[in-house]
Amino acid sequence: MQGVSKLRRMIVTIALALVPAPAFAIDEALLPRNLSPWGMFLGADIVVKTVMVGLAFASLVTWTVWLAKSIELRRKGTLAMQRTRALEGNIKLTEAAERAGDAHDSVAQLIQSCTKEAELSGGVLDDGLQERVALRLERVEAAMSRQIARGTGVLATIGATAPFVGLFGTVWGIMNAFIGISESHTTSLAVVAPGIAEALLATALGLVAAIPAVVIYNHLVRGIANYRALLGDASAQLMLLVSRQRDNREFRLARAAE
User: Fold this and answer.
1) What is the torsional sign of CA 102, 243, 253, 134?
2) In the chain, where the domains are located
3) pLDDT band at 44 (very low <50, low <70, confident <90, very high)
4) How many CB atoms lie within 10 A of CB 84?
C-alpha cells in the first residue's frame, strides 16, 4: 500500500509539473514593454493613430493661430491708439489725411474714407454729409473687424470637435481591445490593459487640443472686442472733427487746400 501511495504522489507531482501555465503568464511575454505615450502610439491601431495625429495637428494649429493673432492684435491696437489720440487734438481733416498718407492700417483707412466722401460731396456742408461719412466709417469698421477676426473660427471648431474626435478614437480602440480578448480566449487584465491605455490616450489628446483652443479663442475674442472699441473711438473722433469744421465753416477739402 505504501508503494502505491508513493506512486500516486509521484504521478500527481508529474501531472502538476506538466500543467500549462495560466494564459496571462504565457501572454505576458508577448505584451508591449514600452507603455509610454510614444510606445502606446506606436502600438495603436491605424485608425487610433490617425485620430492622434489629427489631434496633434489641431493643437499645433491652435498655438500657431494664438501666436499670429496675438502679434497682429498688439501691433494694430498700438497703431490704432496712436492715430486715435492724434485725432483728439485741434486738427483738421486735411491735416489728418496728410499724416495718414497711403498707410493701410485701420484708422488710416477710416481717415481716407472720410476724406474721400468729403471730396465727393463737393464742399456741400449739410446734414447729408455727416450721414454719408457715418455710413462710410461704419462699412470700414465692419471690414476691418472681419479682417482682424479672420482665423479665430478654426479655434472654435477645434474646441468644439476635438473631444468628440478623441472619444471616437477611444471607442475604436476599446472595441479592438475586446476583439483581442475574444481572440485570445482570456479575460486577463494584463492582456486588456495595453489596448485600453492606447484607446484612452486618444481622449487625452482630444482634451489637450480642445482646452487650449477654447481658452485662446475666448482670449482673442476679448482682444478683438477691444480693437473694435478703438475703431469706434476713431470713428467718433472723425465725426466730431467733421461736425466742428462744419459748424465753424472751416471745412476744407484736400483738393481745395492744394
Assistant:
1) positive
2) 22-257
3) low
4) 20
